[in-house]
Description:
Blueprint: E1 2-4, E2 24-25, E3 28-29, H1 30-40, E4 45-50, H2 54-62, E5 70-75, H3 82-90, E6 99-103, E7 106-108, E8 123-128, E9 139-142, E10 145-147, E11 153-162, H4 178-186, E12 190-194, E13 199-201, H5 205-215
Amino acid sequence: MILAAGHGTRMRELTHERPKALVQLGGRPLLAHCLGSLAAAGLDHCVINLGRHGQQVRAFLADGAGPDVSVTFSDEGDDPLETGGGILKALPLLAGGPFWVANADVYSQFQFREPVLPAGTLAHLILVPNPEHNPDGDFCLIDGRVAAAGADRLTYSGISILSPQLFAGTSPGRFPLAPLLDSAIAAGMVSGELFTGVWIDVGTPERLAEAEAILAGEVSGYTSR
């Protein structure tokens, strides 16, 4: 599932008239980069949630501009359901087992694979070294399990594998994903891995410019931003 329903308010003038997922990076929309990564891994079906200007995403893919991935839309209208509520709404459109979730406004060279969860877990988080905009990190990684506290903190990349069971007991509506992950982490049911390759949260015009420089080959020795 690609999360593409956010308003993109931090992108300012770039998202007044278009969804954040269609902001251009290297001559291609962010969404196309993400779909391309899924296609390269042989993953052939994707659910995309839509918010304001969602019809533009539909039109972009209807024109055949995206990679060869079958897409189903989960339309949330002009009032998005946040991450948790959006994923819950989309669960009937997914295959019923573990599935990847990726933020549309993240550009990375992470290589997707079949979404398999370790035994006894409800989620698997891809973590990255802390970028400048999140110096204190989010979680720790201890022996392959994600912990809330510890010495060496890392940043959640916005990429994860989730089990539908993570949403057991939730009700339809607007709610964030973070509390569900926090509860599962406290129960020792979240695994993780560290990704040290190219990753950037393209959430502001400044970080979009950094990503453009990376694609243009102007920055070397780059990890996460």
